[in-house]
Design brief:
2 domains, alpha+beta, Helicase, Ruva Protein, domain 3, two-stranded antiparallel sheet, N-terminal domain of MutM-like DNA repair proteins, eight-stranded antiparallel beta sheet
Length: 319
């Protein structure tokens, strides 16, 4: 799942490309009957309302809140986009094609009948044609002739609409912790937030979005490796010195993630379809069995599962 650095990279790209443009239309081929998706454009009843509300609206600004992208429009509306597991936004010129595909039967098998479906493809050769960018399920047509497309292989992404004035008070955003890279997020605030889960394992607490915003599986592993803290340590057992090391590691690792354009170990690509490079600088994440890169450490990277999440750490220097 894209984490703070990937979402921040996307938001910075959007600020350079779409602010000031009008949304002329929006298309989707998503369709679900899941009642939990009642305010998602994948819901066939919600999408027409969404489309009417955003058409001919001007994009005024773009911001990030935790792992959410907020696109503020004229008329007092805000589009919220959460990329979830495999989603990412792409910017460029696309063409809509009609292609034939084999339909499905009521039992779930292939019926043998052909049906016509709509498909979007980039007009030009280049990064947008990366295989990871081919799962286009939402397209915004912009006033400059370009498109903002949402590629999402697993179709878990969320796109909804809110009133701008009350956006941060909605259920989508009102239970999120503070931003870890803001200047007012001090060491004291960091300790206070972690202290809300004193009996929790530090790995689990770090990725809890109600505690601190934006940290996920990749960056939590890298933070704890740098700080020398075992991912299963209880928060209440972490010493003051270790708290300082974790705080500094958090700021350092997240900033590096942004500097390298995010992590593309999996599906994530930036707005222009290019992969980030943070995965080239991993110290621990998905390096199971490799020698620890910490100077003078003779440990080997191990993998365990904590709260259903793959967790990577050095068994020697992370205590």
């Amino acid at each position: 799942m894209p984490e703070l650095p990937e979402v921040e990279t996307t938001v910075r790209g959007l600020k350079k490309t779409v602010v000031g443009k009008k949304i002329l239309d929006v298309w989707t081929d998503l369709s679900t009957k899941d009642k939990r998706q009642s305010e998602n454009i994948a819901n066939p009843k919600f999408f027409p309302k969404f489309r009417r509300a955003v058409r001919n609206s001007k994009i005024l600004s773009v911001e990030r809140r935790a792992k959410n992208i907020l696109v503020n429009l004229s008329g007092g509306r805000t589009i919220l986009i959460h990329m979830k597991m495999t989603g990412h936004l792409l910017y460029g010129a696309y063409s809509k094609l009609k292609v034939s595909a084999q339909g499905g039967s009521a039992s779930g098998g292939k019926s043998g009948k052909l049906k016509v479906i709509e498909k979007w493809e980039p007009k030009d050769k280049g990064p947008l044609r990366d295989p990871f960018n081919r799962f286009i399920h939402v397209v915004f047509t912009l006033s400059n002739g370009k498109h903002l497309a949402f590629s999402d292989a697993r179709k878990f992404g969320k796109i909804t609409l809110m009133d701008t004035k009350t956006a941060h008070d909605t259920k989508h955003l009102n239970n999120i912790g503070p931003e870890p890279l803001e200047k007012n997020f001090t060491l004291g605030k960091f300790k206070e937030r972690l202290g809300k889960r004193p009996n929790g394992k530090i790995k689990t607490v770090l990725i809890d979005q109600s505690i601190i915003a934006g940290i996920g599986n990749i960056y939590s592993d890298e933070i704890l490796w740098r700080a020398g803290v075992h991912p299963e340590r209880r928060v209440s057992k972490i010493k003051e010195k270790e708290m300082k090391l974790m705080f500094r590691a958090m700021r350092k690792v997240l900033s590096k993630g942004i500097d390298f354009g995010g992590d593309s170990m999996s599906d994530y690509r930036n707005l222009l379809g290019r992969p980030g490079k943070f995965q080239e600088h991993h110290k621990v994440y998905q390096l199971t069995g490799e020698k620890c890169q910490k100077p003078r450490c003779k440990g080997i990277i191990e993998r365990i599962v904590i709260a259903g999440r793959s967790t990577h750490f050095c068994f020697t220097h992370q205590k």
